[in-house]
Amino acid sequence: MPHHLATATRHINVNSTHQPVKFCNNVISTCKYSVFSFLPRFLIEQFLRYNNIFFLCIAALQQIPDVSPTGRYTTLFPFCIILLISALKEIFEDLKRRTSDKKVNNFPTQILDKGEWKDALWKDVKVGEILWVENDHLFPADLLLISSSEQQGMAYIETSNLDGETNLKIKQSLPTTSHLTSLDSIGPFTAYIECEHPNRHVNEFSGNLHIEGQEPKHFGIDQLLLRGARLKNTEWICGVVIYTGHDAKILLNSKVAPLKQSNVDIMTNRRILFLFFVLVSLAIVSAIGAELYNRSYIPEAWYISWILADGAGFLWNVLTFFILYNNLIPISLQVTLELVRFFQASFINNDLGMYHADSDSCAVARTSNLNEELGQVKFVMSDKTGTLTQNIMKWKRCSVGGVSYGDSESDQFADMRLVDDYKKTPDSAHGNAIRELLTMMAACHTIVPEHKEGELLYQGSSPDEGALVRGAAAMGVVFHTRQPQRVVLNMLGKDESIEVLDVIDFTSDRKRMSVVVRSEDGKIKLYTKGADTVIFDRVGEASKATMNTLKEHLEEYASFGYRTLCFAMKEIPQDRYAKWSADFKQATLKIDERQKAIDACAEEIESDLDLVGATAIEDKLQEFVPETIQALMAADIRVWMLTGDKRETAINIAHSCALCTHHTELMIVDKHTYDETYDKLMRFADRAKQYEVEGREFAMVIDGKSLVHALTGEARVHFGELAMRCKSVVCCRMSPMQKAEVVEMVRGLADHVVLAVGDGANDVAMIQAAHVGVGISGEEGLQAASASDYAIAQFHFLRRLLLLHGAWNFDRSVKVILYSFYKNITLYIIELWFAIFSAWSGQTIFERWTIGMFNIMFTALPPIALGLFDRPVDEAQMLRFPALYCSFQKRAFSLAQFCMWIGMAILHSLMLFFLTYAILEEGVVWAHGRDGGWLMLGNCCYSFVVATVCLKALLECDSWTWPVIVSCLGSIGAWLVVLIAYSWVFPLGRFTIGADMAGMAWIMMTSLAGFWLPLIFVPLTTLLWDLVIKSFFTITHPTPREMAVLYQKRHATGGFERLTRYGTIYSSGVLDLFRGRTRISTDDEFPPGSEPIPIEALTRGRRSSSSMQLAEEARHGFAFSQEEHGPISQHDMVRNADSTQPKPSGR
């Protein structure tokens, strides 16, 4: 017994309600908060934002008596409202996560209760219970397989949801429990299990089963059914619950839902930090001004000399001015962003362009805090199975006797010429080759047929084999019976029995599978299928003539990304077979070097073969995957594929989904020691620099074992350098945690936003590790979607999510932030100019409550309208020109943009104050002999500021829509209405506020020259600067939006479409278009100098010989997804399966 079992084990009573200890329940939660953790986690997240910390300090300082010139509650009250709105938004979004968790927890299952099968929910499953799981259902917990409907307690398991493997795995129950196939035998069954404590090792498991009166039986990973895996091609299984809920292995590979902060928030924090130091500097300068004024002028004014005796000191003045200028940092920024993000998320949720009718699923923004992150993505880390592919294999093409059959447009192979050509000349060499190909497709495999309700079904661990068997059946060669020693085929209406003599298993080293059969005419034949590289090496001279034609067909099939297999055969004389069979049986019985002896025997018989043909199978991609990946790469986004599948399969899919082309240099890292991995990475990093200079395409392929070393020590540096240079990377044979480690590594290499997209439980860790996690709510349950930030139904919706919503949201959110800074600085920096004329006394130019209402009432709507309704470029243009996405990133929140906005705010504040001061310098005297006082100056200036900043929003808006116009003009009108109402508040009832404002509306609005004419003149004069600057930059340095609009006017047609079938490669970008470079398009819409150029002109030289062989093999030679080293070998599967025997019902 392993040492760890003796020291730390879990003890479980089978089929019992009494357990030695209390185990974890089966309820899972991906929620961000709980009832108890909400307040601390929410406050931590909120105070990661510097502006919230700042306003908390301001609110506290305002409570000090006589220090605040703006009152005690003018900051605290709006600050509490802001936190409340943010809290409600977080609660609402977390409730959506809880709803998704509830859906998973309430999946149905069946539990053995008091000798009967009873319906139950996943959340009610307990450790020790016996569950009944039917075909195509997910396992609700980690189970120990007891028995199944199949012979010898076998079960086929699909684990693509867990490890990305496309082939089915075979699990087998212990012989001591495999007979428990009826309710009478399962009901009274009791036992005692001793096993490991929960851990995250999905490929390791060990324990013992104790049955009374029997010796303990050891079990391992071959008997463990993991939560989230799916039962396939097996009518039912019974299993004992081992681990539940968050103790399940796949859940242990997940992480606690992290607190993610957007890159925009981080940059905003930096800008706020800068403004904070500006604020402190202004407070110090103002305090110095106050000190100089007090010492220079106060002593001469004997009537106020008491100010020097009782006045505040320097630090007190600093504090006063610090509070006076505090609104330079906009208090409404956070709540405005929260509201904008919330409604931006609702736009995503309700976008019909991301609605999937087949599954009745729409996009779901499970968090809104990361909307703008979607517009800054630099790396997309994608799962393969279920994300890029549908995991549906279909036979598409074949080549026999130099003739290619089938086409790439049909959903599956339907070329009846194949059968017709056989029927015309069945005895010819070509006709015989067709017959042998169809026979091998129908007989050389481990598939088991099942007759169910009049329908013929096929069960097997390899989806490729299943596709070929179904394809042969569609052509009239139907495999319908398997017995231990023979298979029966219906050959075009006539049953033929084929005796299976020997099976030589497929392995990754052999890259082929062979069977020796005896046909009805007594001939012994060897049927072999496998990679073209191994088949071509073993064919005889007679087949050399057809080999070149077959290679051409394989190249054609590979251009579509199909998984190809070559077929060969030969007749074996009886005497030679007798000798070889004896040697083969001896090899299978060896103890030492058994596999080596078997391989030697196989090499002896698998030689001088006759090449029959080849088949092409499509691992069906999800809709528009190549188009989406091309668009993302055209937007300068690096796309990585992270999968648990084998290398050859991963590379095939990489080609078919346009992640790389057949002219891409594949740099394959497949070493198993640290030194070898380090050396190879170092060489590839140097080679990548050379390729960049030469303008050649290159991509990296690395497997899980090499990745362990690549992420360690000095190798990590070279791996990171190489990864940053590659446009695409394929990582295969990866565990869930390795996926997360790669994502974290890329995050740490540079300041780039990383997005992870996946559909299975094995993708949760990387989804949570990425800046932005996107879950595909597809066939593999809802765990990835539940743990994600955004959920979509299909991978191709990612294009719309990023290039449209992401770019729009990023541009809009940045405008909201910059505009919020601008409007606050424009208003509140006027306090500094007024301080010069108010003896640096700290007196406000504006009435205190109008200061507070500026952000929450009079300028609240324009930034929200900008954030929701502004369209920098229309939808069609954004999707047509992916390079716009990258261009927006470069200009949206740059330091130059920030400085421009701040500079314009200071300029506007100077003009607004001094123009107002100049207009009212002489004062306005009414008929009763009174003037307007300081509030006339303050309120007029305030009115001009409101009008200016609202009109500024219209200038900055790229598309004027009625909500934008109404919000801007309505805000100006709202101030005028409030001004009238506020000036009438003080004399009415018991109101004690607004005494200074009493009658101000009448005073202001009865002055044509002092208010109404300046209300038009001052804002227009102030904004004239913006018109001049915008015109200058539009002419000299047009933005991508302006260039796209200009191009749209000149060219009404065109679009971005997939063009790989024409053998042409295009770069993309509206910027490139106007600079005479290559771009993506489909129509004759290129100005001179920007026409697309053929890929041959871009690809200089040939691949290096070091990686060419591996790349060629992976590209079109090996696509046979058969499980290796499982509990039952392929030989045993063939020898023990019997489709004529009835299956137990288990009931």
Automatic annotation (TrEMBL):
Residues 11-76 form the P-type ATPase N-terminal domain. One of its GO terms (cellular component) is plasma membrane. It is a multi-pass membrane protein. It comes from the Eukaryota. Keywords: ATP-binding, Cell membrane, Magnesium, Membrane, Metal-binding, Nucleotide-binding, Translocase, Transmembrane, Transmembrane helix. InterPro entries: ATPase_P-typ_cyto_dom_N (IPR023299), ATPase_P-typ_P_site (IPR018303), ATPase_P-typ_TM_dom_sf (IPR023298), ATPase_P-typ_transduc_dom_A_sf (IPR008250), HAD-like_sf (IPR036412), HAD_sf (IPR023214), P-type_ATPase_IV (IPR006539), P-type_ATPase_N (IPR032631). Mg(2+) binds at residues 383, 385, 759, 763. Pfam families: Cation_ATPase (PF13246), PhoLip_ATPase_C (PF16212), PhoLip_ATPase_N (PF16209). Its EC number is 7.6.2.1. The active site is at 383 (4-aspartylphosphate intermediate). Residues 785-1039 form the P-type ATPase C-terminal domain. Residues 1083-1147 are annotated as: Disordered. It is found in: Cell membrane; Membrane. Residues 1112-1126 have a biased composition (Basic and acidic residues). Its main location: membrane. Belongs to the cation transport ATPase (P-type) (TC 3.A.3) family. Type IV subfamily. This is Phospholipid-transporting ATPase.
